Amino acid sequence: MLKKVMLSVLLFGLVACGDPEWTNYGSLYGLERQDWIEASGDKQLGTAGYYLRKLQQKGFLKDETATEGEAWFINAVNLTACINERITYSNKETSYLVADCVKSLKLDKQT
């Protein structure tokens, strides 16, 4: 019985500490330009979240809370919308669009 309780606590801890569900559809490694265009909205959103997390881990975002809780979701939604807008008129690769959008959204340390 004690083993079942411990296993339940451990599983709950892993789920509670994991990434939000909306990130599950994203690509940890980013998406190339054509892959982004062809991706579902959920995949784009999750990937935008991972882009933000990587930028945060590398120290490029000015606010540590940019990848926490509801702020992370809102920032990912805004990043997704920005990339989708810019990809229609820019020939830049996705990583450059991400950098441009993070700057225009004033999430980077330079702004």
Task: List the keywords.
111 residues; mainly alpha; 5 helices; globular
Describe this structure in words.
The chain has 111 residues and is mostly helical. It has one domain (21-104). It is built from five helices and no strands. The protein has helices spanning 2-17, 33-38, 41-57, 69-86, 94-104. α3 packs across α4 and α4 (69-86) packs across α5. It is globular and about 35 Å long. The N and C termini lie far apart (55 Å). The relative contact order is 0.14. The model is unreliable at 1-16 (pLDDT under 50).
Radius of gyration: 16 Å
Summarize the biggest pleated sheet. Answer: none
The total strand number stands at 0
Estimate the mean pLDDT confidence: 87
- Quaternary structure: single chain
Estimated share of beta-strand residues? under 5%
Choose one word for the global shape. globular
Name the poorly predicted regions: 1-16
The chain-level structural class is mainly alpha
How many domains would you count in the coordinates?
A: 1
Order of helices and strands: HHHHH
Helix content: 55-70%
Count the helices. How many?
A: 5
| End-to-end separation | 55 Å
In brief:
With 111 residues, this protein is mainly α.
SSE blueprint:
Blueprint: H1 2-17, H2 33-38, H3 41-57, H4 69-86, H5 94-104
Helix pairs in contact: 3-4, 4-5
